[in-house]
Specification:
binds adenosine-5'-triphosphate; 8 helices; 7-stranded parallel sheet; 213 residues; Rossmann fold
Length: 213
């Protein structure tokens, strides 16, 4: 069975950067990839769009292909969406299948602030994307935690179910949801930064237009 990789995020809204890195991860890791929107993200201000709107945009964005899937399980849980809880559930359900938690370099640098973050290495491999525009040294405790874990994504990391850190060299795309929200709030239409299908979803543009950006 192929490894199962998860890209968690706010997806407020989903953009071409998310789709591109998720797609390239599926190729680099030969993995099934699921996009998993967070209900109440623990590390940031609440999303502008509702969970239903973000899911509708994700569904529209993922239409027409079957390599990337939507996994909405975190939206059904009360309280903050902790990745460690999601991975515990996935581990229980997937047996010894290799799991990979995907994230951009920005998210990775903040890992030591995540709930029970050391446990993540016991539950999954971590796949870290390069992210243009983001440059920060990893904090010392993160550096210590990944010592001996960095492995080549083209190697045989998948013979173990968890514990490695894979650096994924993806096509650099300096696109963020923050910038897209700002453009929308200014009344602009970032047509080609967003997947085409989202423009058929009714009502969502107004939600971002009304927000302060
Ligand atoms: P925001 O600007 O609101 O923080 P975002 O664009 O970072 O949003 P998220 O939904 O927070 O999007 O991101 C989900 C995951 O995808 C995170 O791990 C993030 O680092 C990663 N990611 C998002 N955009 C890119 C990109 N252009 N390149 C690499 N990784 C990305």
């Amino acid at each position: 069975m192929k490894p199962l990789a998860i890209l968690g995020g706010t997806f407020d809204p989903v953009h071409i950067g998310h789709l591109c890195v998720a797609w390239e991860a599926s190729e680099l890791l030969d993995a099934e990839v699921r996009l998993m929107p967070a209900g109440v993200p623990p590390h940031r201000t609440p999303p502008v769009a509702s969970a239903e709107q973000r899911v509708a945009l994700l569904r529209a964005a993922l239409a027409g292909q079957d390599r990337l899937q939507l996994d909405p399980r975190e939206l059904g849980r009360d309280g903050p969406s902790y990745s460690v809880d999601t991975l515990e559930a996935l581990r229980a359900e997937q047996g010894d299948r290799p799991l990979v938690l995907l994230m951009g370099a920005d998210a990775f640098a903040s890992l030591p602030s995540w709930h029970r973050w050391s446990r993540l290495f016991e539950l999954a491999h971590l796949g870290v994307f390069t992210r243009p525009g983001f440059k920060a040294a990893w904090p010392a405790d993160l550096d210590a935690a990944i010592t001996g874990r960095l492995v080549d994504p083209a190697g045989d990391w998948y013979v173990r179910e968890a514990g490695s850190v894979l650096q994924l060299e993806v096509t650099p795309l300096e696109i963020s949801a923050t910038r897209i929200r700002r453009l929308l709030a200014e009344g602009r239409v970032p047509r080609y930064l967003l997947p085409e299908g989202v423009f058929d979803v009714p009502g969502w543009l107004e939600v971002y237009r009304r927000s302060p950006g």
